[in-house]
């Protein structure tokens, strides 16, 4: 099932929908409990897709992929985790806005996992039972604000620095995903989950050991080699085979 949020004809009202082919059907209820698909539907080209979820928490992981052909290190005892505030979230085709203090920032195409139910101290073998589905993320970071002692919060936390979309797929095989990024049409990232260091189920298990994961939390699973800098005027496309394309332009405020 492909779950989305959307608006129609520029109206402020936000609808929840299920994408089927070239149409999106509205639904009632909660994807974390039960939904009822309604008769009302729209053609996809008539609607604006929004971020498919407004997360409670956004938890990212750093340095979690190796380049193709490189020797993969063992999973670290203490992975590099960080938080992004919900004000970083934007949807497909929304602009990534650089404040005056930022002239360039790195794009990072990633698979994002949406948590579907409360998870506390779960094992890796249990993790799949707590996942609602997958979407695409662009984990934008202004490296000039990364502290030399290793603190990433400021550089990761600017408004609009976490595009998500275009939808949540509840059946996507995230363990075999191929992640691609194109900057102004030029492909700069293209790799698979075979290069991941801390696998997704291990990651979710680890996080659930130090914080309770709740429905709607989003876990960013890391980005392959090739992430680069983007500037005002650029267009960045983050692509995951089977999950579609998340495209955003970059603008200076």
Keywords:
5-stranded mixed β-sheet; 6% helix; 253 residues; 12-stranded mixed β-sheet; mainly beta
Question: Short summary of the structure?
Answer:
The chain is mostly beta strands and 253 residues long.
Can you give a write-up of this model?
This protein has helices at residues 153-156, 200-210, and strands spanning 2-8, 15-20, 23-29, 35-43, 47-49, 58-62, 80-84, 89-90, 96-98, 105-106, 109-115, 131-138, 162-169, 178-183, 186-192, 218-220, 229-230, 235-240, 244-252. The chain is globular. By secondary structure, it is mainly β. A hairpin with a 2-residue loop joins strand 14 and strand 15. It starts with a strand and ends with a strand. Strands 1, 2, 3, 4, 5, 6, 7, 8, 11, 12, 13 and 16 form a twelve-stranded mixed beta sheet that branches. A five-stranded mixed beta sheet has the order 9-19-18-14-15, with no helix packed on it. A two-stranded antiparallel ribbon has the order 10-17. It is built from two helices and 19 strands.
What structural class do the secondary elements suggest? mainly beta
Low-confidence stretches: none
Shape: globular
User: How many DSSP-defined strands?
Assistant: 19
Residue fraction in strands = 35-45%
Radius of gyration: 18 Å
For the record, give the distance between the C-alpha atoms at the N and C termini, rounded to a whole number: 37 Å
Mean pLDDT: 96
Following the backbone from N to C, one meets helices and strands in this order, namely EEEEEEEEEEEEHEEEHEEEE
- Report the biggest beta sheet as strand number plus sense, adding barrel if it closes: 12 strands, mixed
Helix content: under 10%
How would you describe the oligomerization state of the chains in this entry? single chain
The total count of helices amounts to 2
């Amino acid at each position: 099932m492909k779950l989305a949020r959307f608006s129609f004809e520029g109206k402020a009202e936000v609808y929840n929908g299920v994408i089927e082919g070239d149409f999106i059907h509205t639904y009632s209820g909660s994807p974390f409990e039960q939904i009822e698909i309604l008769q009302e539907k729209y053609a996809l080209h008539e609607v604006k897709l929004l971020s498919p979820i407004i997360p409670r928490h956004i938890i990212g992981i750093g340095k979690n992929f190796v380049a193709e052909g490189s020797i993969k290190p063992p999973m670290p005892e203490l992975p590099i985790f960080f938080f992004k505030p919900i004000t970083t979230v934007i949807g497909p085709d929304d602009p990534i806005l650089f404040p005056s203090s930022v002239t360039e920032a790195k794009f990072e195409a990633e698979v994002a996992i949406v948590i579907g139910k409360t998870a506390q101290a779960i094992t890796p073998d249990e993790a799949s039972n707590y996942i609602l589905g997958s979407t695409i993320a662009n984990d934008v970071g202004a490296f000039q604000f990364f502290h030399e002692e290793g603190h990433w919060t400021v550089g990761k936390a600017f408004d609009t620095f976490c595009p998500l979309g275009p939808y949540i797929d509840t059946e996507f095989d995230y363990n075999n995903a191929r992640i691609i990024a194109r900057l102004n049409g030029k492909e700069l990232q293209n790799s698979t989950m075979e290069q991941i260091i801390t696998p997704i189920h291990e990651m979710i298990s680890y996080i659930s050991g130090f914080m309770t994961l709740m429905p709607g939390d989003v876990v960013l699973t890391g980005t392959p080699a090739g992430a680069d800098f983007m500037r005002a005027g650029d267009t960045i496309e983050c692509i995951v085979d089977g999950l579609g394309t998340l495209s955003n332009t970059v603008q200076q405020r």
